[in-house]
C-alpha cells in the first residue's frame, strides 16, 4: 500500500510535466490544427534559460521561472511569425514538415551553443531541498512545487480561455477561422497569443524539469514532447482539461507499469492504450465525435 | 493511346537498361567507389521507402507516421533468415519473407486504424511503430534486444538494389494507374463523395496501406543486408519522419518527386558531412526554407515528363518526327 | 514511372561528380580518420574523445609530426548512428585514404565499422569500446580492430569481487542500461561473478538511455533486502539514479563501472547524495603522475575545462596509433597493424599497457570511492 501511494506520487509529478507540455500542444492544435513539433524544443529552451539564470546570473527560482516563461513566449511567437505564418494557406503536412525543421534547428543550434553534454542545475538549498516523510512515503518539496505550479498555471489558463476577451477570440478562431475573421476578430493576433501562452507554459515545464531531475540536454524535449502529445490526443486534442487529464493519466500509467511490471514495456503500454482509445473513441476521452457533413 | 503507352514502354525499358548499365560500368571502373556505393544503397532504400509511403500518404491521403515500423519488420525478418542461411536463396527468401510479414502486420494494423482520419491516424500509426520497436527491443532472445543484430551477411549490391528499386517504382506506378489506384486518389480527394460513387473506401485504403507496408519491408530487408547491422533504435520515430520529409519535399502524389527528393537529400547529406559541426543546423534550415518557398514540394503532384529526354534524343535523331 | 527512373539516371551522374571531389592525398601529410559521435544521443562521449584526440595530434604536429610528416585529421560526425559509422568508416578508408581510423567511442558503433576495417585492411581503434566481443569473438581475433580500454568482463568481475571481498556483500540489486551492449555486458558479468562468489542478485531492473525518472523502479527496489546496488550504465542516468535513490531514502552502497567517471556525475547526483559510491576507472583527474598532470594542464589551457576519462582515452588513443605509425616506419596500413599488435609498455595518461594477442590492453583497473562528491579513496586491481 505504502509502495502504491509512493508510486502514485511519483506518477503525479511526472504527469504534471506531461500535462504542462500537453497544454501547449493542445492549444496550438485546437486553433490551427498543427502538431507543433517545435513545442517540445521550446520546453528544452525553457530549461536552458532557467539554467543560465540560476548558474550565471545567480537568480532564485521564481525570477528564473518568470524570465524563462517570458523568453519562451518570445521564441514561440517568433517561430510562429517566421516559419508558420507564411504557410497559413498551404497544406497542413507542409506546415508539419516546417515544424519538424524548426524543431531540429532549435535542437542543433542549442547544441552548437551550449554543447551536447548533459548539464545539471545547481543544487537546491533551503526550502527547495526539503524532504517530507509521511509514514514511509517520501514527498520532496520539488514534487510539491511542480504540482503547485502546474495547478496554478492551469487555473490561470482556464480563466484566460473561458473568461477573457482574447480567450473568447481563441475559441472563436478554433471553431471557424473565416467566420471569426468576418466577426472582426484579429486572427493573426489571436494565433500569436495562443503560441505565446503555450510557449510560456512549455518554458515553465522546462525549468521545473530542470529542478526536479537536475539534468538537461539539447535533445531532452523529444521523448517528453511525444508523450505529451499522446497525452493531448488521449484527453481529446484541443480541449484544455483533456490535456491535463491525459498528462496525469499517462504519468501514472508509466509509473505503475515500471513499478509493478517491466519498465521496458512502459512506453509500449502507453502507446497501446492510446491506440485503443483512438479506435474506441477517436476524439479522445473528452472530445465530441463530430459527424462529417457532406 | 495504346500506341503511346507502348512507345513509352520501350523507352522506359531502354532508360532502365541504360541507368543500370552506366552505374554498373562506373562501379566496375571504381569511379563509384565503396563509399559511394553505400550512398547509392541509401538512396535506393530511401526511394523504395518514399515511393511506398507516397502511395499511402500522397495518393491515398492517409497520413502515416509509422513507416519505420514496417521497415524494421522487414529488416529483422530478413536479418534473422540470412543469419541462419547465409546463401543467395536465403537472402531472396529473407527479403520476401520480411516484406510479407510487414504486409501482414500492415493489414492487421490498417484494418482498425484506417477508420481514423488525418492527425488521429498519424498518431495511431506512430504509436504502432513505437510498439513494434519496443517489442523488438524486448525480444532479447530473438533480436538481441536494444544492442541489435550484428554481422548480417551482406548480399546487396547494385544489381539487387536496382532490381528492387525499379520493381517498386514500376509496381506502385502501375497500381496507381489501375482502377484501384484511381479509387485511392478519389478517396484522397473526397472520401465521402467517392463512397457515394460506390468505392469501398476501407478496402482501398487497407490495400494501399498493405502494399506500402510490403515495400517498406523490402526496404528494411535491403537495409539490414547493406549495413550488416540493425538495432531497434535505427527505426525510431525520427526515421518515420525522415521518410515523410522525403515524400513531402518531393511532392505528395508525385513518384518522380519522391525519387528526386530521395536522391537530392542524400547528396545534400553527403556534402554536409564535411561540415560535421553544423550539418544538422544547415539541414534543418534548408528544410524550413524549402517548405516556406515551395510548400507543395519540389514536384507538386506532377510527374516529370519524358519530353526532356525526348528533346535530347531528337537532337541525335532529328528526322524521326514526333518523339 | 519510367520518367522517374530516367531522373535517377541523370542524378547518378551527379553522384559521379561527387566522387570526383574526393580529397587528394598530400605526400607530406599522414591522414588519420576521426569517426565519432559528434551529435546524437552519445554526442558527449564523442566530443570529449575528439577533444583529447585533437590535443594529441596538435602536440605531435607541434613537435614535428612523424618523421617530418604532419598528421592530418579528417573528422566526421556519425550522429551516434551505427549505419552512419559504417558508411563513414568506408568513406575514410576508400575515399580519404586514411592510414587508420580512430573511433567510434561506443562499442556498438565501433563494432559496426570493423567489417569495413577488415575488408579494406585499415586499422580501426577505439579508446572506449569496452564490450568483450569488440576485438575478438568465436570466429577469432578481428585482425584490424584495436582498443586501449579494459573490457567489460574485466571491470564487471572486478566490481563483483570488490563487492564480495571488500564490502562483504551477499545480496545485490542490479540496475542495467539495457539499451547498450555496455550496460548489458557489464550487468551479465557482474551477476555471474557475484553469484559464483556466493552472493545473490535479489532484483534486476532495466532502463534505457535518456530516461530521467527512476522513481518508479527505485520505489520497487526499496521493498527488497539488499547490501549493494550495481548500476551498469553511464553517468547521465547513473547520476540521476543515485540522486533519486538517496532522496527516496535508499542508503546502500552503490557500485558502478567506468561510465561513472565524469565530473557530471557529481553535478547530476549532487555532492550530498554521492556517498558510499565506488566505480572502476581508467583515469582520475586526481592522479599525480607528472605526465597526467601535464595532460590535464594542457587540456585546460586548450579547452578551459578539466578532461574527463573519454578525453583522456581519446588522447591516449591518438598517441597509441601515432606511436604505432612511428614504429611501423611507414604509412602502410598493414605495417601499422603489425606495429600496434606488437605494442609493449605503452605509457599513457590512463596507465601503461601492452597489447595482448586479442588486441586488448593489459591494464589495471582503479576502484575509486566517492565521499561527499569527492574522489576519496582509490584501489588498484590488476588484471
Task: Explain the overall architecture.
The complex is a heterotrimer of chains A (294), B (323) and C (383). Chain A is an all-alpha fold and 294 residues long. In chain A, 72% of the residues lie in helices and 3% in strands. Chain A has eleven helices and two strands; from the N terminus they run H-H-H-H-E-E-H-H-H-H-H-H-H. Chain A has a two-stranded antiparallel sheet with strand order 1-2. The mean pLDDT of chain A is 87. Chain B is mostly helical. Chain B has two domains: 32 residues; 288 residues, ABC transporter involved in vitamin B12 uptake, BtuC (Orthogonal Bundle). Chain B is 75% helix and 1% strand. Chain B is built from 14 helices and two strands; from the N terminus they run ααααααβααααβαααα. A two-stranded antiparallel sheet of chain B has the order 1-2. Chain B is globular, with a radius of gyration of 20 Å. By secondary structure, chain C is of the alpha/beta class. Chain C has two domains: 200 residues, Response regulator (Rossmann fold, 3-Layer(aba) Sandwich), CATH 3.40.50; 130 residues, Response regulator (Rossmann fold), CATH 3.40.50. In chain C, strands 9-8-10-11-12-16-17 form a seven-stranded mixed beta sheet, with helices on both faces. Chain C has a five-stranded parallel beta sheet with strand order 2-1-3-4-7, with helices on both faces. A three-stranded antiparallel beta sheet of chain C has the order 13-14-15, with helices on one face. In chain C, helix 5 packs parallel to helix 6. At the B-C interface, helix 1, helix 2, helix 7 and helix 12 of B face helix 1, strand 2, helix 3 and helix 4 of C.
Key traits:
heterotrimer, A: 294 residues, mainly alpha, two-stranded antiparallel sheet, 11 helices, 3% strand, B: 323 residues, ABC transporter involved in vitamin B12 uptake, BtuC, 2 strands
Protein topology:
The complex is a heterotrimer of chains A (294), B (323) and C (383).
Chain A: H1 2-32, H2 39-55, H3 61-84, H4 92-114, E1 131-134, E2 137-140, H5 141-163, H6 165-175, H7 177-182, H8 187-213, H9 222-235, H10 240-260, H11 266-280
Antiparallel strand pairs in A: 1-2
Chain B: H1 2-28, H2 34-59, H3 67-84, H4 88-113, H5 118-138, H6 140-143, E1 149-150, H7 158-177, H8 179-189, H9 191-196, H10 201-227, E2 229-230, H11 237-250, H12 255-272, H13 279-293, H14 307-316
Antiparallel strand pairs in B: 1-2
Helix pairs in contact in B: 1-7, 2-7, 2-10, 2-11, 2-12, 3-4, 3-5, 3-10, 4-10, 7-8, 7-10, 8-10, 11-12
Chain C: H1 2-20, E1 29-36, H2 43-62, E2 70-77, H3 82-94, E3 100-102, H4 107-120, E4 123-126, E5 136-137, E6 140-141, E7 145-147, H5 152-166, E8 171-177, H6 181-196, E9 200-207, H7 215-222, E10 228-232, H8 235-247, E11 254-256, H9 263-269, E12 277-281, H10 290-303, H11 309-328, H12 333-341, E13 346-348, E14 351-355, E15 361-362, E16 365-371, E17 374-381
Helix pairs in contact in C: 2-11, 3-4, 5-6, 8-9, 11-12
Amino acid at each position: 500500500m505504502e509502495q502504491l501511494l509512493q508510486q502514485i506520487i511519483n506518477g503525479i509529478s511526472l504527469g504534471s510535466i506531461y500535462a504542462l507540455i500537453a497544454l501547449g500542444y493542445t492549444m496550438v492544435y485546437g486553433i490551427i490544427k498543427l502538431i507543433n513539433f517545435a513545442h517540445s524544443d521550446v520546453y528544452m529552451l525553457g530549461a536552458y534559460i532557467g539554467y543560465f539564470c540560476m548558474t550565471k546570473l545567480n537568480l532564485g527560482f521564481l525570477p528564473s521561472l518568470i524570465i524563462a516563461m517570458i523568453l519562451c513566449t518570445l521564441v514561440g511567437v517568433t517561430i510562429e511569425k517566421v516559419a508558420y505564418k507564411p504557410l497559413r494557406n498551404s497544406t497542413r503536412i507542409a506546415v508539419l514538415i516546417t515544424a519538424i525543421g524548426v524543431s531540429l534547428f532549435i535542437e542543433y543550434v542549442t547544441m552548437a551553443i551550449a554543447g551536447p553534454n548533459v548539464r545539471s542545475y545547481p543544487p537546491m538549498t533551503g526550502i527547495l531541498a526539503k524532504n517530507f516523510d509521511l509514514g514511509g512515503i517520501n514527498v520532496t518539496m520539488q514534487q510539491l512545487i511542480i504540482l503547485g505550479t502546474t495547478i496554478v498555471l492551469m487555473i490561470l489558463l482556464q480563466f484566460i480561455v473561458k473568461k477573457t476577451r482574447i480567450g473568447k477570440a481563441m475559441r472563436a478562431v478554433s471553431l471557424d477561422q473565416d467566420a471569426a475573421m468576418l466577426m472582426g476578430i484579429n486572427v493573426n493576433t489571436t494565433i500569436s497569443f495562443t503560441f505565446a501562452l503555450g510557449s510560456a507554459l512549455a518554458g515553465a515545464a522546462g525549468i521545473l524539469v530542470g529542478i526536479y531531475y537536475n539534468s538537461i540536454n539539447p535533445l531532452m524535449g523529444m521523448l517528453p514532447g511525444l508523450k505529451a502529445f499522446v497525452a493531448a490526443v488521449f484527453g481529446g486534442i484541443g480541449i484544455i482539461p483533456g490535456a491535463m487529464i491525459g498528462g496525469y493519466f499517462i504519468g501514472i500509467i508509466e509509473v505503475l507499469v515500471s513499478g509493478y511490471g517491466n519498465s521496458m514495456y512502459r512506453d509500449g503500454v502507453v502507446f497501446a492504450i492510446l491506440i485503443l482509445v483512438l479506435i474506441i473513441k477517436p476524439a479522445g476521452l473528452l472530445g465530441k465525435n463530430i459527424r462529417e457533413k457532406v | 493511346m495504346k500506341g503511346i503507352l507502348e512507345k513509352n514502354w520501350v523507352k522506359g525499358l531502354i532508360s532502365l537498361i541504360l541507368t543500370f548499365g552506366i552505374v554498373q560500368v562506373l562501379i566496375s571502373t571504381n569511379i563509384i567507389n565503396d563509399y559511394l556505393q553505400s550512398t547509392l544503397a541509401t538512396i535506393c532504400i530511401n526511394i523504395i521507402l518514399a515511393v511506398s509511403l507516397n502511395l499511402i500518404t500522397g495518393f491515398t491521403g492517409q497520413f502515416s507516421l509509422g513507416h519505420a515500423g514496417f521497415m524494421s519488420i522487414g529488416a529483422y525478418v530478413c536479418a534473422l533468415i540470412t543469419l541462419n542461411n547465409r546463401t543467395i536463396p536465403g537472402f531472396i527468401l529473407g527479403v520476401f519473407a520480411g516484406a510479407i510479414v510487414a504486409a501482414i502486420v500492415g493489414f492487421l494494423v490498417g484494418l482498425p486504424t484506417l477508420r481514423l482520419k488525418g492527425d488521429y491516424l498519424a498518431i495511431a500509426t506512430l504509436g504502432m511503430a513505437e510498439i513494434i520497436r519496443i517489442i523488438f527491443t524486448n525480444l532479447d532472445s530473438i533480436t538481441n534486444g536494444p544492442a541489435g543484430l550484428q554481422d548480417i551477411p551482406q548480399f546487396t549490391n547494385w544489381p539487387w538494389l536496382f532490381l528492387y528499386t525499379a520493381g517498386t517504382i514500376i509496381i506502385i506506378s502501375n497500381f496507381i494507374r489501375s482502377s484501384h489506384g484511381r479509387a485511392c486518389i478519389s478517396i484522397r480527394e473526397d472520401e465521402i463523395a467517392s463512397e457515394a460513387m460506390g468505392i469501398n473506401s476501407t478496402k482501398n485504403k487497407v490495400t494501399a496501406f498493405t502494399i506500402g507496408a510490403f515495400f517498406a519491408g523490402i526496404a528494411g530487408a535491403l537495409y539490414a543486408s547493406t549495413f550488416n547491422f540493425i538495432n531497434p533504435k535505427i527505426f525510431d520515430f525520427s526515421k518515420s519522419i525522415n521518410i515523410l520529409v522525403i515524400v513531402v519535399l518531393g511532392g505528395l502524389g508525385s513518384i518522380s518527386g519522391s525519387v528526386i527528393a530521395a536522391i537530392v537529400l542524400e547528396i545534400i547529406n553527403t556534402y554536409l558531412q564535411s561540415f560535421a559541426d553544423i550539418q544538422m543546423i544547415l539541414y534543418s534550415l534548408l528544410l524550413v526554407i524549402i517548405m516556406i518557398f515551395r510548400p507543395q514540394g519540389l514536384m507538386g503532384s506532377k510527374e516529370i515528363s519524358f519530353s526532356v529526354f525526348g528533346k535530347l534524343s531528337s537532337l541525335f535523331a532529328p528526322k524521326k518526327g514526333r518523339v | 514511372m519510367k520518367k522517374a527512373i530516367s531522373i535517377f539516371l541523370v542524378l547518378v551522374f551527379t553522384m559521379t561528380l561527387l566522387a570526383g571531389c574526393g580529397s587528394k592525398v598530400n605526400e607530406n601529410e599522414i591522414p588519420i580518420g576521426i569517426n565519432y559521435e559528434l551529435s546524437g544521443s552519445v554526442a558527449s562521449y564523442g566530443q570529449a574523445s575528439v577533444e583529447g584526440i585533437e590535443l594529441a595530434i596538435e602536440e605531435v604536429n607541434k613537435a614535428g609530426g612523424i618523421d617530418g610528416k604532419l598528421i592530418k585529421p579528417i573528422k566526421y560526425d556519425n550522429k551516434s548512428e551505427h549505419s552512419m559509422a559504417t558508411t563513414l568508416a568506408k568513406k575514410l578508408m576508400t575515399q580519404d585514404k586514411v592510414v587508420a581510423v580512430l573511433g567510434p567511442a561506443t562499442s556498438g558503433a565501433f563494432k559496426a565499422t570493423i567489417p569495413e576495417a577488415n575488408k579494406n585492411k585499415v586499422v580501426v581503434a577505439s579508446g572506449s569500446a569496452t564490450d568483450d566481443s569488440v576485438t575478438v569473438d568465436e570466429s577469432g581475433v578481428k585482425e584490424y580492430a584495436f582498443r586501449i580500454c579494459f573490457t567489460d568482463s574485466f571491470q564487471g568481475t572486478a566490481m563483483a569481487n570488490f563487492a564480495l571481498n571488500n564490502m562483504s556483500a551477499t545480496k545485490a540489486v542490479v540496475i542495467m542500461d539495457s539499451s547498450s551492449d555496455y550496460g548489458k555486458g557489464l550487468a551479465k558479468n557482474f551477476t555471474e561473478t557475484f553469484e559464483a562468489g556466493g552472493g545473490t542478485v535479489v532484483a534486476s531492473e532495466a532502463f534505457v538511455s535518456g530516461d530521467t525518472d527512476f522513481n518508479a523502479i527505485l520505489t520497487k527496489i526499496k521493498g527488497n533486502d539488499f547490501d549493494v546496488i550495481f548500476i551498469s550504465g553511464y553517468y547521465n542516468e547513473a547520476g540521476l539514479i543515485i540522486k533519486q535513490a538517496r532522496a527516496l531514502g535508499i542508503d546502500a552502497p552503490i557500485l558502478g563501472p567506468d561510465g561513472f567517471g565524469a565530473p557530471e556525475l557529481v553535478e547530476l547526483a549532487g555532492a550530498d547524495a554521492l556517498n558510499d559510491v565506488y566505480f572502476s576507472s581508467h583515469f582520475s583527474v586526481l592522479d599525480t603522475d607528472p605526465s597526467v598532470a601535464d595532460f590535464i594542464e594542457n587540456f585546460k589551457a586548450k579547452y578551459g575545462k578539466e578532461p574527463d576519462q573519454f578525453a583522456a582515452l581519446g588522447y591516449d588513443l591518438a598517441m597509441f596509433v601515432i606511436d604505432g605509425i612511428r614504429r611501423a616506419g611507414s604509412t602502410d596500413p598493414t605495417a601499422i597493424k603489425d606495429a600496434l599488435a606488437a605494442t609493449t609498455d605503452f605509457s599513457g595518461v590512463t596507465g601503461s599497457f601492452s597489447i595482448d594477442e586479442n588486441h586488448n590492453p593489459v591494464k589495471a583497473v582503479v576502484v575509486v570511492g566517492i565521499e561527499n562528491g569527492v574522489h576519496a579513496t582509490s584501489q588498484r586491481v590488476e588484471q
